[in-house]
Amino acid sequence: MNPKQAYQDGDLSQAMTLAAEVVKQNPSDVTARVFFAELCCIVGDLERADKQLQTLITLAPELVLTASNWRQLIRAAYARNSVYQEGATPTLVAPPSPDVERALHQLVALHNNFLETETTDSDENSSPANVVFTVNQSSTAALRDLDDLNADILEFLGTNGNYFWVELSQIESLHLETPERPLDLLWRKCRLITNGGSDGVVFMPTIYPNTSDDTQQLLGRSTDWVNRNGLELGLGLREFLVGDEVLSIMDLKSLVRA
Predict the structure, then answer these.
(1) What does the pLDDT average to over 88-117?
(2) CATH for 3-82?
């Protein structure tokens, strides 16, 4: 069996082992090293992925721009981990609304091992903002992330190394490119236009934070839910509620503010 077959079969551990061996036996094989770096990102071994990219730049200088952008996405992924695992504050593109203030409060409570249980009246009486989009150029409906912590925002990685939140109410349009390789299934390339005037290429994480050991979840082939501190939090592939229908991020092609 080769690494790509193991990956396609859903055996990440075997794919990693085989890919590492291929790179060891053929250190100048650029394609093999790229695939190994992709697998490292998928399993969350960002340091190892970055080292592969450092070597790749030496092996194939013509790929320096691609590899450099990828390394910046890894830096943004580190920042994302800091938010969900260490209680860091995400970068916001605009002053936070009450909805985002609430999410930040909930994030702190989760990080403090759920000991911060005090809620405000606005926390108890609030619900996700009712932001309506035309989705995939067809249905027009309110959209939210099914994960309660992310209900009112979309999270993005930038090729400047930044990790940031954008409120749904700030989005004018979002167009997602069709995935072509394993890394695209982890971080989906998008064009984002906000009502603040920004327009650029960003990358949306497809896998919920804190997904750590379930292979099918890491591969984006399943979604599960856990209740923590009264919040329903996702593990595995990101899902949205569009009207009354559930839509996975892999089925999302475009959002245009209605």
Answers:
(1) 85
(2) 1.25.40.10
